[in-house]
């Protein structure tokens, strides 16, 4: 039946780029932490080499993630209301406590990982020694019992960190999944899809960060790390398989659900096709999967780097497609709601990204990144003039 | 049973004058670009077989409001009489309620920077008056009152007329009842909107 809507009220998309970026950051934090906890928590020896790199990355990503939310609030000055009023029916309220517990647990875990190296680093003198001495809070005991205690506590807080990481990112899946008004969001798979894509992008970013840390802290990417990267790349391949399978299941059921669900599926395939099929699933999932299928490619640093970059882009596209795409389909009226990112949001997103990068780089440069198999060189060229 | 406010809109009487929309803006100082209540209008068919449909929309003051459940600070609350209100001093503007409402009833007030929506003109109702949109309706299409009071006009209409609500499947249990609503007006024709139907 031909129908013409000739009077309608315009509506806008309220959750934009910043919300998608928030989901993206918490995801990569949880993903990189879970991956690097394989050593300390699950006792897989070779992963102990990277637990420090991973935990710093997880802490920094998680520390900067909520800034996106803060800047997205229409009343940012009232954010403290989130702590004063608990609302058990709101997934957003669950997140408030997870966003505190998770980084605090990670910092305690990191402290036990780093303590021994802080003590050893005290003789370096200068700024670093001062920093280590402060961070030690006087706990300089290097007896065998104390070191064993470090290990035990690291395992305890690392083990606590795993469910917290699952929750801190899983809850964001509930934020969208609990909204019955929007077919694209309203699926019980949403928290699991979020977690799996977080494992993919967290692993992707972690591989790149680890290579940079190795290169700049130890001068070269050693054979042991190359072998580990090939292992992690293999894991990433399987994460992509699970994530891809979940996306396919999600899409098939969406296609056969209500009229709203079918229309949403149609929308993803057509209007959003270049982004959903091309960027998110083609370039971001299928391409890295095909690269990582080959054992030779997994042993090649440039190819693994390429696959990692593709997954990072793909998962960003996925967050944007879900968060913003989910709101493009109108609830009333007769038109697709268009979204254009505002200059303000874009600058804030870039600003937070750059700041997070600077802080992470600084932490890696001043903290002792000694690991099984590699000790920091005695004099590291530091451009900031903090070396003695 | 206690008082439960609801609205019945008799679309057979609605002429599409938009007076309700204007009265609402004026009564509640609603800024330009956003609306607490509005009227959708559409035309179906091909000359000479055509018809015109209108659908005045407002907050449905649902029995089980999605907006209330998702609010992380309990700024949205519901009175005993069913009216769903926003505490403007508590709202942090996270916009979760806006994303969750299936009816597009909410928006951020660009002057107050909090979530906002129709309040059934709460201060007027408290003072014994009708909401502004009902008061101004030139044909008496909008009827507001206590759904549980057998002497109220709303009760009588609900008891004697065929009524429909928008999106009953969402479990929001909306309390705006339409008489004579066309199915095409109650929900967007999504398949056509996304280009899947010519």
Radius of gyration of chain B, in Å, reads: 17 Å
Helix content of chain B: 10-25%
What does the average pLDDT of chain A come to? Answer: 92
Residue stretches of chain A low in confidence (pLDDT < 50, at least 5 long) are 380-388
Largest protein interface?
A-B, 58 and 55 residues
**Shape estimate of chain B:** globular
Distance between the termini of chain A: 80 Å
- In total, how many domains does the architecture of chain A comprise? 2
Highlighted features:
heterodimer, A: 388 residues, mainly alpha, 2 domains, 14 helices, disordered C terminus, B: 198 residues, alpha+beta, Alpha-Beta Plaits, two-stranded antiparallel ribbon, 10 strands, globular
Give your account of this protein's structure:
The complex is a heterodimer of chains A (388) and B (198). Chain A has 14 helices and one strand. Chain A is mainly alpha-helical and 388 residues long. Chain A has two domains: 14-178 and 342-372, no CATH class; 186-339. In chain A, helix 2 runs antiparallel to helix 4 and helix 6 (144-177) packs across helix 7 (190-218). Chain A is globular and about 80 Å long. The relative contact order of chain A is 0.15. By secondary structure, chain B is α+β, with helices and mostly antiparallel strands. Chain B has one domain: Alpha-Beta Plaits (2-Layer Sandwich), CATH 3.30.70. Chain B is built from eight helices and ten strands. A four-stranded mixed β-sheet of chain B has the order 8-1-10-9. A two-stranded antiparallel sheet of chain B has the order 2-3. A two-stranded antiparallel ribbon of chain B has the order 4-5. In chain B, strand 2 and strand 3 form a beta hairpin. The longest helix of chain B has 10 residues, at 19-28. Chain B is globular, with a radius of gyration of 17 Å. The interface between A and B is large, with 58 and 55 residues.
Summary, kept brief:
The complex is a heterodimer of chains A (388) and B (198). Chain A has 388 residues and is an all-alpha fold.
